[in-house]
Write a structure and sequence with these properties.
Layout (H helix, E strand, L loop, with lengths): L33 E4 L4 H4 L15 E4 L1 E8 L3 H6 L23 E10 L11 E7 L21 E5 L10 E2 L9 E2 L6 E11 L5 E9 L6 E4 L1 E4 L2 E4 L26
Antiparallel strand pairs: 1-2, 3-4, 4-5, 5-6, 6-11, 7-8, 8-9, 9-10, 10-11, 12-13
Length: 260
């Protein structure tokens, strides 16, 4: 197989009915301002969201502040230098549905970061994610019938941590000609328009972008969304979906259901 090219054959995912997620204790809004964030924080990914390379073992970071359940633009130095990408002026801002004006508008984000006193993402916090506007009619799944994960005008979110070695896949940055999520570490590739069910190593079932090439053993999880006005908010319907690469997302009882 030629490196970097989508292959035609791949392992089919587990397509059984989802099982109820194990109950996970939720954090109150007050307790959520003090928590530990393990591998996967912004400290190691700030300059890598375009290139897709990230240090796997980050130091544990303790941060204080407000938990932001929305998505914060995280623009890489390479993208800023290029200057032509529509996301450059939005670096550090909260994502809004109105920002995604065209199908295929996609951007690297930090999700569930802790905000400091200045309202900025505290170093070492936040989960890498990708927001992407799609044509919902092109999604190959009954996904919309399962839970409301795609919000107007057709925006869908994915956790941006490769299931192979925890690098950070990107959308049309390292390989602009490919309409897929592409991880440059080992050429793992995911199709954001084909949402299928996988089984997490813990046994929890989750929905994710289909793995179509590379050594990744399964797809990257979809993040359920809802709108708060124009603001895009991510939910955790089943906490076990996101517990890989050392990540244990803090919960917000006003947003997260704690179950599927």
């Amino acid at each position: 197989m030629t490196s970097g090219q989508p292959r035609k054959d791949f392992d089919e995912p587990n397509l059984k009915e989802p099982e109820e997620a194990t109950e996970v204790g939720q954090m109150s809004r007050r307790k959520a301002v003090q928590y530990m964030v393990a591998a996967g924080g912004v400290a190691a990914v700030a300059g890598s969201l375009a290139g897709g390379v990230v240090t796997l073992f980050n130091p544990v970071v303790e941060a204080q502040g407000a938990l932001e359940t929305g998505f914060i633009y995280s623009v890489s130095a390479e993208t800023k230098k290029e200057g032509s990408n529509w996301v450059v002026p939005l670096d550090g801002q909260l994502a809004a549905a109105s920002h995604f004006k065209q199908v295929e508008d996609g951007a690297a984000m930090l999700w569930r970061a802790v905000l400091d006193e200045e309202g900025k993402a505290a170093p070492g916090t936040g989960i890498p994610a990708i927001l992407l506007r799609v044509d919902p009619s092109q999604i190959k799944t009954s996904f919309d019938q399962l839970f409301s994960g795609v919000v107007a005008p057709g925006i869908i979110a994915f956790m941006s941590k490769c299931t192979h070695a925890c690098c950070v896949p990107n959308w049309r940055l390292a390989r602009k000609e490919l309409r897929i999520f592409y991880c440059i570490c080992h050429d793992s590739q995911y199709n954001p328009l084909e949402i299928v069910q996988y089984t997490h190593p813990t046994g929890v079932k989750y929905w994710g972008a289909k793995r179509i090439a590379g050594p990744a053993p399964r797809g990257i999880p979809v993040i359920p969304l809802q709108l708060d006005g124009d603001k895009i908010v991510g939910r955790i319907d089943a906490p076990g979906w996101y517990t890989y690469c050392g990540i244990e997302p803090p919960l917000d009882p006003n947003i997260d259901t704690g179950g599927s």
